[in-house]
């Protein structure tokens, strides 16, 4: 397996980074994860636009980065022979040989990329997953995709310890999103709801793509905060993300969601999205 680190393609186990990197010391880093299906990058431009926004938000220069990233993605995919999976990229504040909160006036970013082969539409998409609800303890700018992921990592550890697949985060009685995915619920009368954008959640690329698909079919979505109570009483729940695409959540805190099986609205959204990338559920 070949990864890309600060200007070079190197073997995965030979990649070395300074421990003084601001990404390592302060989580001063942006990241993106782009799905690859049939050898092609899904929604690449949207991921890069979000990366630019995060970099601007966390004061890391992005001069010339955009032009290089497309070909770096393609080269990494080719070198590793990935046809289905994802590419991960991380832009850090760079390394300066000392731990200094402020650092130099203009940072010189570091760049790390790797890719992985993964079945994007598999068992979990077919049968659904279980999740637990966990208090959202993240910082206040969750709309930036940074590597400050400690609360998500802890939420996943808690889920896994309890035999669940993932976690759904909430604060003050309202649901924010999944630990690494946006959240959608189907309430009575087929009302589809997902949280409105703002500083509280990540503006998911898959979320936007699903919204676009639904709009084309004339299906309305309520974009608003969902209470924990609504979530726990929902008929259907599903998540969207680049690596999971659309995953039905069929069990929450040990209790079945609706019938305990992926519901009709979720199936419809999956069908639409999969067709959009040239796949189907049995792929
Ligand atoms: N919310 C959070 C907190 C995430 O980590 C992710 C996945 N990176 C998402 C939502 C989904 O975003 P996307 O569809 O762009 O992968």
From TrEMBL:
One of its GO terms (biological process) is branched-chain amino acid biosynthetic process. Keywords: Amino-acid biosynthesis, Aminotransferase, Branched-chain amino acid biosynthesis, Pyridoxal phosphate, Transferase. It comes from the Bacteria. Its cofactor is pyridoxal 5'-phosphate. GO terms for molecular function: branched-chain-amino-acid transaminase activity. Belongs to the class-IV pyridoxal-phosphate-dependent aminotransferase family. Acts on leucine, isoleucine and valine. This is Probable branched-chain-amino-acid aminotransferase. It comes from Henriciella algicola. The lineage of its organism: Bacteria, Pseudomonadati, Pseudomonadota, Alphaproteobacteria, Hyphomonadales.
């Amino acid at each position: 397996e070949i990864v890309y680190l600060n200007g070079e393609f190197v073997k995965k186990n030979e990649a070395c980074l300074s421990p003084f990197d601001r990404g390592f010391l302060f989580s001063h880093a942006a990241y993106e994860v782009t799905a690859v299906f049939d050898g092609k990058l899904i929604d690449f431009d949207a991921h890069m636009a979000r990366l630019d926004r995060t970099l601007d938000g966390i004061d890391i220069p992005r001069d010339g980065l955009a032009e290089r990233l497309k070909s770096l993605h393609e080269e990494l995919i080719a070198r590793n022979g990935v046809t289905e999976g994802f590419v991960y990229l991380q832009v850090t504040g760079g390394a300066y040989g000392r731990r200094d909160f402020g650092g130099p006036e203009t940072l010189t970013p570091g760049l790390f990329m790797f890719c992985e082969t993964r079945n994007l539409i598999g068992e979990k998409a077919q049968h659904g997953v279980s999740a637990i609800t966990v208090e959202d303890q993240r910082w206040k700018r969750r709309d930036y995709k940074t590597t400050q992921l400690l609360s998500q990592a802890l939420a996943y550890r808690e889920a896994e310890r309890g035999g669940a697949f993932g976690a759904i985060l909430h604060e003050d009685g309202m649901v924010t999103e999944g630990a690494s995915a946006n959240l959608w619920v189907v309430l009575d009368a087929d009302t589809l709801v997902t949280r409105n954008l703002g500083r509280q959640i990540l503006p998911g690329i898959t979320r936007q793509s699903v919204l676009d698909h639904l709009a084309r079919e004339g299906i309305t979505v309520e974009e608003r905060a969902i209470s924990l109570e609504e979530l726990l009483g929902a008929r259907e729940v599903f998540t969207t993300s680049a690596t999971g695409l659309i995953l039905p959540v069929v069990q929450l805190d040990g209790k079945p969601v609706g019938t305990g099986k992926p519901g009709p609205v979720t199936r419809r959204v999956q069908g639409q999205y999969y067709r959009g990338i040239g796949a189907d559920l049995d792929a």
